[in-house]
Design brief:
The protein is α/β, with parallel strands linked by helices and about 220 residues long. Helix content is about 15%, strand content about 35%.
Length: about 220
C-alpha cells in the first residue's frame, strides 16, 4: 500500500471522474483507493473504485464522487486497498452481474477479458453507456441462462442487498457449484482498512469479516 498525490482531471455527468495518479496506485478491478481532497477538513476518506478504463496515468472512477470535487482538485491517495477480482486466464465466457444502480465497479474487467478473446455478457437493470459494441447487455431476469453459459462470473452487490442476490440465485445451486465466481460486496468503509471500526462488518461462516480489508471481493460460494 502506498501514499501519493493525485488530482481530479475531469468530471462526468454520471458522477464519476478521471483520476490522475502514479501507476502503482491505480487499483485493479475490485480494489479501491482512500482519497482526501486537498484543503478539505473532512475526517473520513472518500472511497474510489475504478470504473471502465484505467491507464498508466490513472483511471476513471465509479460513481459517485463528492459534489464539491472539480477538475484540478488535488487529492491525497492511499492504496490500492483490498482484494480485487481474479479473472482466470482460461475464461472465454465472462458474465458481469450488477445488483445495484450502476455496474461501473465491474466494468474494469471488460478490457482484460477482451484481450484474452473472451465473450462478455453484462446483466443489469439500468442503462449503460460507452460499452464496447461486443459486450452483450441483458436484464437481470435473464441471469439463469447467462449463468449456465458463463465459465466465470463477477457480481456487484451492496451488503444490504445480499439476500436479494441469494434469492435470484436460488435454484441455481448446480450451476453455481461448478462456476468460478466472485462477488464485490460494498458497504461504508470509513476507516479505509486502517482500523477495525466494524462499520463494514460482514458475517461469514459464523465469523465477522471486515469488507474494507478482507474483501471487498469474496468468493460466491462463501456468500451463498
Amino acid at each position: 500500500m502506498k501514499n501519493a498525490q493525485g488530482k481530479v482531471e475531469e468530471t462526468f455527468l454520471d458522477g464519476s471522474a478521471r483520476i490522475v495518479c502514479p501507476p502503482e496506485l491505480t487499483p485493479a478491478p475490485g480494489q479501491y483507493l482512500a482519497a482526501h481532497a486537498g484543503g478539505s477538513d473532512a475526517p473520513l476518506p472518500v472511497v474510489l473504485f475504478p470504473g471502465i478504463s484505467s491507464s498508466q496515468s490513472g483511471f476513471r472512477s465509479a460513481p459517485v464522487i463528492p459534489a464539491s470535487w472539480r477538475p484540478g482538485q488535488s487529492l491525497y491517495l492511499r492504496g490500492p486497498i483490498g482484494r480485487g477480482f481474479s479473472l482466470p486466464v482460461s475464461s472465454r465466457k465472462l458474465l458481469l452481474a450488477a445488483f445495484e444502480d450502476t455496474p461501473a465497479r465491474l466494468l474494469g474487467l471488460i478490457s482484460p477479458a477482451l484481450k484474452q478473446n473472451a465473450e462478455v455478457v453484462l446483466a443489469v437493470n439500468s442503462a449503460v453507456d460507452d460499452l464496447p459494441e461486443v459486450v452483450e447487455v441483458q436484464p437481470l431476469k435473464g441471469l439463469p441462462e447467462a449463468l449456465a453459459w458463463a465459465d466465470y462470473a463477477a457480481f456487484d452487490v451492496s451488503r444490504e442487498n445480499l439476500n436479494q442476490m441469494r434469492q435470484r440465485l436460488a435454484g441455481q445451486e448446480q450451476v453455481t457449484a461448478r462456476l468460478e465466481a466472485q462477488v464485490l460486496v460494498h458497504a461504508p468503509m470509513p476507516c479505509g482498512a486502517i482500523a477495525d471500526c466494524g462499520v463494514c462488518a460482514l458475517i461469514l461462516h459464523h465469523d465477522w469479516k471486515m469488507i474494507c480489508k478482507e474483501g471487498p471481493v469474496f468468493l460466491l460460494k462463501d456468500l451463498l
